[in-house]
User: Fold this.
Amino acid sequence: MADTAVGATTEPEHGSDPSRRDFIHIAAIAAAAGGAATLVWPFIDQMNPSADTRALASTEFDLTKVAEGQQVTIKWRGKPLFVRNRTKAEIAKAVADDSAQMKDPATDASRVKPGKANWLIVGGNCTHLGCVPTFGGGEYGGWFCPCHGSVYDTSGRIRKGPAPLNLVVPEYAFLTDTKVKIG
Amino acid sequence: MSGHSTYQPKTGIERWLDARLPIVRLGYDSFVDYPTPRNLNYWWTFGGILSLCLASQLITGIILVMHYNPSAQGAFASVEHIMRDVNYGWLIRYMHANGASMFFIAVYIHMLRGLYYGSYKAPREVLWLLGCVIYLLMMATAFMGYVLPWGQMSFHGAVVITNLFGALPLVGESITTWLWGGFAVDNPTLNRFFSLHYLLPFMIAGVVILHIWALHVVGQNNPTGVDPKSKADTVPFTPYATVKDGFAMSVFLILFAFFVFYMPNALGHADNYIEANPLVTPSHIVPEWYFLPFYAILRAVPDKLMGVLAMFGAIACLFALPWLDTSKVRSMRYRPTAKIYFVFFLVASCILGVCGAKLPDDPVIPHLTTFQLAGSDLNSFVWLSRVAALYYFAFFLVVLPVLGLVEKTLPVPDSIASPALSADAKKG
Amino acid sequence: MLRKLSVIAAAAGLLVVGAAGPALANGGALPAKEVQWSFDGPFGKFDQAQLQRGFKVYREVCSACHSLKLVSFRNLGDKGGPFYNEKYPNSNDNPWVKAIAKDYEVADIDSETGDAIKRPATSADHFPSPFANEAAARASNGGALPPDMSLLAKAREEGPNHIYSVVTGYVDPPKGLTVPTGGHYNPYFPGDLTSAWHGSKEHVPPGGFIAMAPPLKADLVTFDDGTKATLEQEAKDVSAFLMWAAEPKLEERKQTGFAVLIYLLLLSGLLYASYKTVWRNESH
Assistant:
């Protein structure tokens, strides 16, 4: 690094230089800012679910374990999930109410897979504040949440009480007639 | 030099804030209009580079803590979880590990600059002492940080260093047990090192603020060692020093990126990729490279307690420096004899670093056996480190005090601006 | 002038460090054989076919004793891995990965009875260890512990070169060397043979005793792509696989590094120009 000896100016004009908006200064600052912004992304993304958490994002479930009229609760993505093998009566009741007045209207058919209406898979958390509802309470034959009295029908739709939405139907697909992949 | 503030709040909001908390004024006076000597060379950019390193370590460190498991059981696997599963975890981990090395490269250059140009001399003694405190905190932080991955080197390095305290008479063993939180380095030790490793960098940040404050009270030194005498000698910090610091930081980042992306494990040790095992000692325990000179000094002395005292003494010499050097001339640019001794000091420090990585009884010149002296062959690294350590201490305790009184110095320029006109201005 | 001298002195000092290296890096062993790897250099990449062959060697030979517990089955399908396929960006869906996982059994608890059971692994599981714990591993291997291989290529000074050298380096012990029971002479394995050597003190053989018998020989494994399974080929492939296992992000790291360095060079250029412009009229 040569500290080149240029003739010292007697009146160095410090004032004018910084206020000149040379293109090169803008380019340099813009490049630095761009680099900083690109660097920020990894630091933010690292808080997103890591690969091992994402690996547990889907689960496969064997439906032969659930007899008609029975319900199994499994843990999926850290929360409960209801897998219910509905009876014909339950399905009929749900379909009959398809056009009834409800907070979050939905047909029963839209909440199950075609040809597999007996299988209802819904999240096990009340959409009000997250408590786990129990089956078999309440006047609609479905779930009842003891925390604040929300009542769901046999399709998991909210019929009474403070919850705003139906029990959430997750993304799922039938791999075979007896095996379903959830998530 | 701290003088009158020239900040003029322009908008209403600026005036409102300035009347309540003049922080914009402080920023302006410290980093915009602040008079900086015009002749600073690139050795002066390392202060800014060090701030960049501190910021980088803090940010990457805080992110790593989000994923790290500080238990002896899970630490090693959690670091691998970061490397393999966390999004960009490998990048953040490598930045943090190599960032520590970069931090020390920068701090050593920064300290050597201070040594060469006499930046520790009056009125900058407190500035220098604060710097020594920062250095000490950095070493403690780095040592504890290296233990956290709980590899073989982490564990056994911790064993060796904590055992050093056992050398202290009477209280040694109690202190070691107290440090361990048990009968050996184990989970309690790891947990407290984790807590302190998180704490200390914030203390470093606090001392850095004091360091910059102390700097701004007395003003920067410069390569001539002559105080600025008029406005002709200085330029405003922004944009003159800002842009130079920015350029230097960018070049430094190239070096950093080279390590992170192409040689991420070059400065580390392979044994640290083996999980800690208290029953198996690695064939060769080596601290991280930035500790090697002190490790060499420790092992140069045959007695355990004296070795510990020598090691801490080597650091204590830095603290005493402002009062050891008797020279009236600040910058070694004008002290030709001192310059030579300084170069030897640099060489001795590098030799000590090399010795720290070697087995003490290994021959320096291969296959050559000479005679035994005090239990070791003269052609051994332990003897080489003894000679180099002797020079290290002699430089601080003999050369600098004596040289200032007997040396012939070159004529010091009248002012900063005048060497710019002089044809025989020495560069460096 | 002296500034230049001191810089040269420092550089020379560093060269000494570099050339000398850490003391006895090989612990008395021969320096590792130099192998050309596809992943060497700033633009290095893993050779997917090689990784598949190496995985086969690991699976059929090494996994009997060596665990790979930090690697998950899904990693096999990640970008840069042996079974990555563009059609399955989410490695958990990769059919080869799922098929490989299903062949393994992992320990689990029966959710209904609470009993300890074994179930087929899924892509989310880690590779199960061949032994339940360290004691069991030692008991089955004459007191020696076969190291976990997840990081082996980074846990040895010369990495995959070292693994290749050890595995291909077994030779008959020279006359005058007393080989302990359960040990095998290997000139590339670290150790100090002075006490086991009865020959001249000047010529102590290099290397040490490794508890593992030569693990590989020609045609031990049949490669699906038809590559001739010589000892060297098997050794090379398994070493490459282990390098991938230790550093699955190697390709991503080097590719990102290239982009970052280009950017930093450009940024430095811009900042230098800006610096020169700012200081144009000022003496320095």
